[in-house]
Design a protein that fits this description.
The structure is a single chain. Helix 1 packs antiparallel against helix 14. The protein contains 28 helices and 5 strands. The protein is mainly α. 47% of the residues lie in helices and 3% in strands. Strands 3-5-4 form a 3-stranded antiparallel sheet. The protein has a two-stranded antiparallel ribbon with strand order 1-2. The chain binds a DNA duplex through helix 16 and helix 20.
DNA sequence: GCCGGGGTAAACACCT
DNA sequence: CAGGTGTTTACCCCGG
């Protein structure tokens, strides 16, 4: 009839952009950059329609940076025994060094010129670290500082890096300089001197940012003291009353765990027990080394991942396979590099702060294992069918999607289903579905007419969505049976394929995500023990299901990944945790891997039940 | 080339 | 009447 309108099809739409388009690693990078920009702007749109908590932006940004491992996380990462051992071991070394250098004990004298000198050195240090960081970024080993001036900064990357400007000797020197300083009197000062904490949280992205611990020391650039803001901006959505070293009512200082009733008590404890002395200094160094080693490990694992992907022909054309890790962190490179590496050779998508990455489409999986599938000119659809189950993908990257204007690699149907299933009663009004979309995906905060229409279209089109009349109106529910029926499970229909894929990857089993998806879809074959044992393949094996399991909700509610150990160490290092509304994000115990490797699947309870013991990758 | 799935656009009906 | 909700159709792209 009159439908003749869009002859060119929806493709004409500049924003929507249906299918084609350049997708690939570049897209990811662009996305990352966009994220960075958003972070810098801080006035992230995400908090608008999304109704996200105010902390969202900073935190989410912070999440983008895997480097941001706080001491608590470190503790969580390392098992207590490990940590303890490491601490002891390294402390011994440290002490030796300290002794050798005759690191003076902290004097009781007030902070004075020496402190200032220390601060200056600290600044220099930070600057050097920054430089180093840039190098790392180029190598794809480290994420960009999450944000500009306002953004939270990923902590310790610079400090922790092996080649970081802060070498032990530097530190010692610094500490020497400060030795004369009196133990800080207030938490702020303490924090300032606490390299472990301060450095980690304030990051080094800006010298100004590194404002000296001593609060009232104006910086050259005219910036006023910002010890307080800095703290707020720390990656860990710290609430005003929180402290990076304080969580779950106990001191998170490595090896401490002293219980503290409240923050005040903790501060006292911090000042008395962890004042600026040789012991604390040594511990700080140990922490630095811990971080350093983790980073090294991360680099190795990233490299391995790249090698794996290369082997699997995931991105043959990638010029510098190892310098552009897929993880968000490492890829958070400059937009410039983006253009260079665009595999598809398509014109670069706009990279301005306001320009959506959307055109690239495939960006989403950046961080997750599904990257494999999205790399290169793979259509979204493809990733849909062949990749990560929404559940895990979302769970892993939902922070990313939440803040990056990147189109999620899921079908509307699967997204709608996810939205509905996430609710307790498994039903949503249309408007609530809309809200979920905008809340969960930055992408859906624009072009509302388009995607809302699509949502309605899908609701009506698919039998799996059932409209139920309600008192207030109508709500939509999901008919799981229909949903499963909806698409003939490609995997289900082809066990052979599954096997081939698995064997082809050289893994004996499916990863957790895949398992979860399988379990969810009641695919018998997949529940077979033989299929689910190892897990290394990680996201690579997400096959046949685009459905969204409920893992997302868990992530949302918990604010962090479940403590399950990640089998895939070499997966993407990005730790994309969602900040819990109330609890400290890092207060929850997280396994080293889970924390350090963002791509860990976060199965929900169901998944847990189904899941087999996770084995360490070999 | 056909077919089906998915995305987009739009027309249209109905309701508030 | 305007806007939201639903339904349906048409068309496009893509992969099998």
């Amino acid at each position: 009839t009159t439908v003749g309108g869009p002859i060119a099809g929806g493709r004409a739409s500049p924003e929507g952009g249906g299918g084609g388009g350049g997708r690939g690693a570049k897209a990811l990078q662009v996305a990352r950059q966009f994220l960075l920009q958003q972070a810098a702007g801080l006035s992230s749109p995400s908090s608008n329609e999304g109704k996200q908590p105010a902390v969202q932006v900073p935190v989410s940004v912070a999440m983008m940076s895997p480097q941001m491992i706080t001491p608590q996380q470190m503790q969580q990462i390392l098992s207590p025994p490990q940590l303890q051992a490491l601490l002891q071991q390294q402390q011994a070394i440290m002490l030796q060094q300290v002794t050798a250098h005759r690191l003076p004990f902290v004097s009781q004298q007030p902070l004075g010129n020496k402190q200032l000198a220390f601060q200056q050195q600290l600044l220099q240090m930070q600057q050097l670290q920054q430089q180093h960081l840039l190098n790392l970024q180029r190598q794809g080993l480290v994420s960009l500082p999450a944000a500009g001036a306002a953004g939270p900064c990923p902590p310790l990357m610079a400090v922790s890096h092996p080649h970081a400007a802060v070498c032990p000797s530097d530190l010692q020197q610094l500490w020497k300089e400060v030795t004369a300083a009196q133990p800080v009197e207030d938490s702020i000062k303490q924090e300032g001197l606490d390299l472990t904490t301060n450095t980690s949280n304030s990051t080094s992205f800006s010298a100004a940012k590194v404002s000296p611990p001593i609060s009232h020391h104006p910086l050259p650039n005219g910036q006023s003291t910002m010890h307080t803001p800095r703290r707020d901006s720390s990656s860990h959505e710290e609430t005003p009353g929180s402290h990076p070293l304080y969580g779950h009512g106990e001191c998170k200082w490595p090896g401490c765990e002293t219980l503290c009733e409240d923050l005040g008590q903790f501060v006292k404890h911090l000042n008395t027990e962890h004042a600026l002395d040789d012991r604390s200094t040594a511990q700080c160094r140990v922490q630095m080394q811990v971080v350093q080693q983790l980073e090294i490990q991360l680099a190795k694992e990233s490299e391995r991942l790249q090698a794996m992907m290369a082997h699997l022909h995931m991105r043959p054309s990638e010029p510098k396979p190892f310098s552009q890790p897929l993880n968000l962190v490492s890829s958070a490179t400059l937009s410039k590099s983006t253009s260079d590496t665009f595999p598809d050779g398509l014109p670069h998508p706009p990279t301005s702060a306001t320009a959506p990455i959307t055109p690239l489409r495939q960006g989403p999986s950046v961080i997750s294992s599904s990257t494999l599938h999205s790399v290169g000119p793979i259509r979204r659809r493809n990733s849909e069918k062949f990749c990560t189950p929404i559940s895990s993908e979302l769970a892993q990257n939902h922070e990313f999607y939440k803040n990056a204007d990147v189109r999620p690699p899921f079908t509307y149907a699967s997204l709608i289903r996810q939205a509905i299933l996430e609710t307790p009663d498994r039903q949503l009004t249309l408007n609530e579905i809309y809200n979920w979309f905008t809340r969960m995906f930055a992408y859906f905060r624009r072009n509302t007419a388009t995607w809302k229409n699509a949502v309605r279209h899908n609701l009506s089109l698919h039998k799996c969505f059932v409209r139920v009349e309600n008192v207030k109106g109508a709500v939509w529910t999901v008919d799981e049976h229909e949903y499963q029926k909806r698409r003939p499970p490609k995997m289900t229909g082809s066990p052979t394929l599954v096997k081939n894929m698995i064997s082809g990857l050289g893994y004996g089993a499916l990863n957790a995500s895949y398992q979860a998806a399988l379990a969810e879809s009641s695919f018998p074959l997949l529940n077979s023990p033989t299929m689910i044992n190892t897990s290394s393949a990680s996201g690579m094996l997400h096959v046949g299901h685009d459905d969204v399991s409920s893992t997302v909700e868990q992530v949302n509610s918990n604010g962090s990944s479940s403590p399950r150990l990640s089998p895939q160490q070499y997966s993407h290092p990005v730790h994309v945790k969602e900040e819990p509304a109330e609890a400290e994000d890092d207060s929850r115990p997280v396994s080293l891997l889970a924390t350090a490797t963002q791509n860990v699947t976060i199965p929900d309870d169901r998944d847990l039940e189904e899941e087999l013991p996770v084995e360490d990758l070999s």
